[in-house]
Hints:
By secondary structure, the protein is α+β, with helices and mostly antiparallel strands. The protein folds into two domains: 3-125, 2-Layer Sandwich (D-amino Acid Aminotransferase, Chain A, domain 1); 131-293, Alpha-Beta Barrel (D-amino Acid Aminotransferase, Chain A, domain 2). The protein has helices spanning 23-26, 50-63, 72-86, 104-110, 131-136, 162-173, 226-237, 249-253, 285-293, and strands at residues 3-6, 9-11, 30-39, 45-47, 90-98, 118-125, 138-147, 178-183, 188-191, 194-200, 203-206, 242-244, 257-262, 266-273, 276-277. The relative contact order is 0.14.
Amino acid sequence: MTTIFLNGEFLEAADARVSAFDAGLTHGVGLFETMAAKVDEDGAAEVVRVYDHLDRLAASAKALRLSDDLRKPALAEAIKRTAEKCGLARQRIRLTLTGGDLNPVSAARTGAQPHDPTVMVVAQAATEYPDEMFEQGVVAGIADLKANPFDPTASHKTLNYWARLSALQSASMKGAAEALVFQVTNHLCGGCVSNAIIVKDGSLYTPIVRGEETDGGLPSPVLPGITRAEVLDEARRQGLETTSKMLTIDDVLDADELMLTNSSWGILPIVRVEAEEIGGGSVGEITRKLREKLVVA
């Protein structure tokens, strides 16, 4: 059962509409977050790492001048209520925030006050992945798409996802479950819809994300993933060393293990990139241990 909360009220799918002048539609002005949720037998919902997602959303909204005054407790409550009304035991929650019914360029020119943003929460059944994906690992391709560190939106979860979805579709047509995206400098970003972590000699290495740049370095076009952060925290709890650094294709192909992380599948083991096996073509022990500990809905 799909449940929709739009601008303060629950609506049936057929009635959930936004204005033809909504900035999300007309200019792609908007952000989104995808979360996992679970509902217990008493109907109480738990949204996994909800405030981590809302903190990231609020930071992006402020940085991109979409909004500097998001009410995170109210959004958290709306998400929880939507999950509980949906009622499914395992859910995928998408929160979408757009610029609302106003042209942002015209507003800047005229000094008009921005309209309220459009806020939509959609709860539906969680995506079911075959167990074999995690037990045996999957293949990743290499996307033609290149990320630009000087694109100010690149490291944010904006509505402009067409290029990434197109690259993911191309990978799927070739039998790959994901595709690795590199920067214009040929350094690894991650997957089309995921962050990347490699394991080498018992240590974890991951691309530098927004907020981790060093003074004088290029800005990072990599989204700071919520699941990525949790995996790295768990690795440190297990006594493993973690390092954020610029990674090349050679680092990827020489890795003992490669994993891709997001809020939907948690940790996805990659055992081959294009024709090249990673770690002998089987899921590594560190990846297995981290996946066992990761909290997912």
